[in-house]
Design goal:
Structural class: alpha+beta
Strand order of the largest sheet: 1-2-3
Largest sheet: 3 strands, mixed
Strand content: 15-25%
Helix content: 25-40%
Shape: elongated
Radius of gyration: 13 Å
CATH topology: GMP Synthetase, Chain A, domain 3
Low-confidence stretches: none
């Protein structure tokens, strides 16, 4: 369910061209964050909103979009945030 909520929140806030979410929580069973219910996720997102923004600004946009999920439901979040022009060039920010 958290994966779908992440998808909805990021889609509403950033209108991505593409969005992939990997739930890697099962491989972290027993980890302190997993015991408290927080999952481990990886997000690859391509959005016009990232154009001209640095890595920190991109991550801030994602954290803003996810809001309170970052406090409990998400323990760890790997982010690969690209602008459409970077995806076309194969550049990874």
């Amino acid at each position: 369910m958290t994966t779908e909520l992440i998808r909805r929140l990021l889609t509403e806030a950033l209108k991505p061209d593409s969005l992939e979410i990997l739930d890697d929580s099962a491989t972290h069973a027993g980890h302190a964050g997993a015991r408290s219910g927080g999952g481990h996720y990886y997000v690859t997102i391509v959005a016009e909103a990232f154009e001209g923004k640095n890595l920190v600004q991109r991550h801030q946009l994602i954290y803003q979009a996810l809001g309170d999920l970052m406090k409990q439901q998400i323990h760890a979040l790997g982010i690969n945030a690209l602008s459409p022009s970077e995806e076309t060039k194969g550049i990874n920010s």
